[in-house]
Each structure stands twice: as C-alpha cells, then as structure tokens.
Amino acid sequence: MGVTLAEARRVILSGDLGHTNAFDVLAALGRQTAFDDSNLARDLLIRVLDQRESVPPSLQGLLQGLVRQHGLFPYLRDVLELPTADRLAYEAHRPDGALGRNIVFHSEQAMVYERLLAGENVVLSAPTSFGKSLVVDAFLDAADITNAAVIVPTIALMDEVRRRLSRLKTDYKIITHGSQSFGDRNLIVMTQERLLELRDMPRLDFFVIDEFYKLDPAHSDERSSQLNIALDLLLRSDAQFYLLGPNITALEAVSGQKLRATFVSTGFTTVATDVERINVKAAQLPDALAQVCRDIGPGTLIYCRSPKRLRDVAEWLLDRDISGGEDLDDAADWVGDTYHPDWIVAKALRAGIGIHHGRLPRALGHHIVRLFNEGRLPFLLVTSTLIEGVNTSARNVVVLDHTIAMRKYDYFTFSNIRGRSGRMFRHFVGRVVVFNPEPRPADLNVDIPVLSQSSQVTDEVLLQLPVEELTPASRERIAPYLDQTLVSVETLKAQRGVAPSRQLEAAQAIAAEPERWYSAMNWSSAYPTTPQMRELGELLIRLTGTSGTVRSAAQLGARVNMLRFQDGDVAALARQDIERRGTNVNEAIEDALDFARNWAQFKIPTALTAASALATDVLADSGRIPTNPGVFAGELENLFQPPFTAVLEEYGLPSATTLKLRRTLGLDTAQNLDDVLDRLRNLGDAPRRLTPFELEMLKDTQDTL
Questions:
Q1: By three-state DSSP, how is residue 701 classified?
Q2: Is 465 contained in some domain?
Q3: pLDDT over threshold 90, residue 688
Q4: How many angstroms separate the CA atoms of 409 and 431, rounded?
Q5: What's the CA gap between 232 and 236, in Å, rounded?
C-alpha cells in the first residue's frame, strides 16, 4: 500500500512534491476522494496544483483526472488532449451565450447556473472564492431577460459590478443613477436606497441581491430596513431571483418558507487557506506586524478596526521601513496636491502602503484597490468596508484586530475577512495571519424580518407592508403611528431612511414651536440663509442622530454653511479646521471627507426632505407651507459643484479631475447623466493640464463606460 493521506499531506504542505513521491501522493488523494472526505481531498488537490510543475509529465494525466473528479474544470489544462469523456464533461460545464466561449464553470457553479436557467429562485451561500458573481454574468448573458436589477450593499461594489457587467457583449443598458433614461433592455445596478428612489421602474424579469445576509439586522446596520423594503418591493414584481452571500448555514424557518426558493449552502472552494496564529503583547505588535510583512511580502491585505487604527498602523510600517511598489510617485503626488501633502494616505502610498476605508472619496478608494490588484501596491490596509464584496487579488490576509470599531466581530465576520485570501487562477493557496484568537465556529441562520415579522423587524419596515399582511403583534407595534393625527401615515411611509419614531419626535417639535420652524423653513430663495441653516440644525439632528463627525446641531448647521461657502471643496474645509482650530491634518481631512460623503450627500438631504414633509403636514391648518427643499438638497448631494461632478466619483473619476473637464464635458448644460457619460466616452485628447495619474484614472474610467 502507498503512503497514507497524512503522509501525503505532510509532503504537500512542506513543498517537497517531486518526481519520486508524486505518484504516491496523487494515489492517496484518489483513495481519499473515492472513499472518504472529498472536501479534504479537494483542499490538498488545490495545494498540489500550486506545485503543478513539480508533478512529472507522465503523471499529469492522473492529476487532470483528479481535477475533473472534483469538478474543478476551470483548472484543467491542455483540454484538446483530454480523453473524449473528460473533454465532453469540460464542454458541458460551459455556460450558454457569448460568455461561454471564454469561461467554464466548476461543478457547483454549473449546478446553480442550471437551476437558474430552469427558472428556479436560488439562495446561494458559498465561500468568497466560489465565483458566485460569475453565475450572475453568465445567466444575464444567456437568459431571455429584458430588465434585471442587481442590488449591492455599497457604491464601491456598485461600481465594481457595473464595470464587470459592462464587459458583457449584450445590448443591455446599465443604469446606476436615477437621472438615466431606460433603454429597451436594462440592467439596474444600485444600492437599496437608490433603487427605492427610482420612479417608473420597468417590469423586472430577474433580480439579484448580493450579500443578502445584510437583510438580517443582526449582521448589518440601520440600512437593513431599506434592504428589507427593497426586497419586499422586488418580490411583489414576481421576478425570478438569485440571492447570494457567504458562510450562511440556513434561513430561519418562516423566512425560508415565505421566500419560496431553493437554498444552496456549499463549502466548495477553489483556493486553499493556511491560517497562522501569532501571539504577542500589545507593545510588540508594531514590530511583529512589520516582520510579518517582510516575511510574506506583496499582495498582503491587513485588516484593522477603524480609520484611526489604519493611520496608526501605517505609521508603524513607515517607521520600520516597510515599502515597495511600482510607479506610485505620480499617484502619491496627486493625492498630496489634491488633499494635503501630510495626509497619511499620500505618505503611505508613496512607500507602497495603501489605505482604504469608508471615508475616502469613492474614486480614490477605487484606484487604490486597482493599484493593489495590478500588483503595483504591495500592502493594503483596510477596514470592514472593503470586506463587503469588493474583490481584491490578495494572496495574504493579516487580521490585526478582532473588532469592528469597538464591537468584537463574530465567526461569520471573521470568516468573511479570512475568505479574502487567495484568488482563483492567481493564488491557489491563501495565507491568513491572525493576531487574536479566532471566534468559535457557529452556525449562521439568516432572518429576513420583512418576511418573518420577527422581533427584529423595524417599525419602518412594518409601515411599508399592507395592513392585512401584518401579524397581530406587528399591528400592535405600529398602532402609535396609525392612531396619531399629527402627520399622515403616507408622510411617515414616504420618508424612507428616517425612523418613524424620529419623524414623530420632529413633528412634535414643529407643533410645539410652529413660528420658529416655519421661519427656519420659509426661504426667500431656493436656499436657506446662513442663520436659517444654523437654526435648522436642531431639527435635522433629531432626524439624523449624531456621529463622531457631527456631534451637535450647531456643528451640523455650521458645517453645511462652510461647505456651501467653499463650493464643496473638501480640502479647503479641512484646511479651515487645521488653521482655525489646530486640528490634526489626518483628522481634519477625514472628518471633512466623512461629512461630505455621508452627511452632505446622504443624511442631510434625506432629513431636509423629511423635515419639509412633516412641517407641511403639521402646519397645514395654518396655511403655511415651507419652501420645497429639493433644489438645495440636490445641491448638497452634488456638494455645490456642477451637476454630475459628484456622480462621476462613482465611475472612478475624482471631482478635482472632473472640474478640469468641466467645459469639455458640458457639465453646466447637461440634462442627464447619459449625456455626460456619452461625452466622457467619446472624449479624445485630454486637456494638457491633467497630471499623469489623472490621465491614468481617466483612461480607467473610459475603458468601462
């Protein structure tokens, strides 16, 4: 008898596979595959593929046979030389349509794809390396679909999906913004909030929700309510659907019964993962991390708990001369010139260390990830914002912290972070280095509150459901909203994204001081005056709550006024903080960026619209009607810059660069985003005043339009 599986595993893990032992190792894998745990055999087989050149030519056929037996068809080589049966099996795993000429599925992908082609609704839980999104692409390429929607959790992922789907050789028009007109065939790629703002959406044939576990508030944030409302809207279209996400064991019973879908949970993976635990004291952490970076080298993603932690870790690595990368000076120069030369993002980038978190401008975040994926940027420091679906080419993942902000992550989140190591066709074996104890393994059962009406469902979601569909407990919960007469239920329902309890609190404040709030919302033009904006801060903060960036009503009003007077120049806003208050450069820039991105472009316009609607109801009997805040809210969303400047950030073109193309793109006269995209797509010679890195970013954007 040949070597045991344990002996074969030792040979593979030691990297000693060669002519003398390859047959015995492959034979052990074959026995394991046939008679025991195929998952373990597949893991070891993938590790053998990482050492494929060590297998002698005479045994390549045996290796190919094992690859086919495990359904890893994309990893087959020399397909024309395969035996007829293997060749037929390989071709049977190609998807239909034009995409099938270039790709072949592994066996589990093919199974999901065939279910979708058969008209089934599918809920898929599979590891990061499974290739869940490729199934979406192939189905959209081959199926008889007129209109489809793909719902993603972040705008960064929205851009990634848009770029990927733009490569399909189809006549779909990709819609990412409400100002675009619909074509004959449409792919709507949006976050849940943006989808809910759409008017006159065409009838859908198919929809996808990526990272569907975020429907469960236990594994999401306040945006879970909007995703549940979006799911309810989409389900009522009777369109076929595909929900996908990682590491999910099951759907809660009621949710699963009402969803009427095939639930597929698989651990099938196309990469192997090595996990190494490092135990050091806090004082030793900087030196230990630097040594890990030296040992494992480029292609390393380092997870940290918060943006502030990223800054500290970047300084550790800079102080210890961790560096590398290619052609990064132009990028670092542009970041320093555009924002501030002392910003840690610019300093770290020059040394080959990327920083990515939720406060970065969207275009800058995209290009930092692009530099990493291209191999030009060796190290990438990230928070949880990059873990939510955005693909990277990381070979190695270092899990430095075991929290997200101050909250310990669970096993599900840890698995999601760990799953970012390795990449099909690029890295067969991913390496994960963990500096804290791993969470205990646990099953993840996803509850979908809009279906189950469980205790996790929010009042906002319940208000959107027809009364006749509510359970007795749900009706009791929303009775306070139905029974009050201060504002209409339709007004409460229309202000999506603002909790009904906050709306009632704001309405009561307006009712208590009607003269004060009418004065604050009765503008002589489309804009409030500076004093009116300061006054409105108190009402708006009731609707938005506070954060580290906006701690008070006075600060909210003051920041809006400063942003307006700076024409949306975030760098100027930061400089103001640095010069007037002596604020640290990094904090000033990132606070200004956070205010612009999360407050000015989202929270405050939403709150302004809600405040106006509430005041209209409350003050109706007195005949006083507040000024419609639509124009001002739109200006806030555009950061007081020319139309569509802020939107092009989502396409990878920074606002500072777009402003240099203002005349060329006709921003001041553009009627919709389609016009701007057409001009950008057909732009010939770029203005000479663009820097080398701006030209690079412009080309990257144009290539995916």
A1: helix
A2: no
A3: no
A4: 20
A5: 6
Supply the CATH number for residue 299's domain: 3.40.50.300
Q: Residue-wise over 144-158: b if at least 16 C-beta within 10 A, else e?
A: ebebbbbbbbbbbbb
Could you tell me if residue 473 is inside a domain? no
**Which tops the pLDDT comparison, 543 or 547?**
543
Cβ proximity of 614 and 521 under 8 Å: no
Length, in residues, of the chain: 705
265, 290, 310 - which closes a domain: 265
Domain final position from 63, 90, 117: 90
Secondary structure, 3-state, 471-521: CHHHHHHHHHHHHCCCCCHHHHHHCCCCCHHHHHHHHHHHHHCHHHHHHHH
- pLDDT of 1 higher than 60: no
Question: Is residue 215 domain-shared with residue 305, that is, in the same domain?
Answer: no
Cβ neighbours of residue 27 closer than 8 Å, sequence gap 6 or more:
2, 3
Q: Are residues 304 and 393 in the same domain?
A: yes
The per-residue pLDDT for 671 is 86
Look at residue 476 and tell me if it is in a domain. no
Q: Is residue 537 domain-shared with residue 629, that is, in the same domain?
A: yes
- pLDDT tens across 258-296, in order? 998 999 999 898 999 899 999 999 999 999 999 999 999
One domain, residues 221 and 277: no
pLDDT tens digit string along 490-524?
999 999 999 999 999 999 999 999 999 999 999 99
Least Cα distance to 93 among 69, 78, 109 occurs for: 109
Pairing of strands 240-245, 206-210: parallel
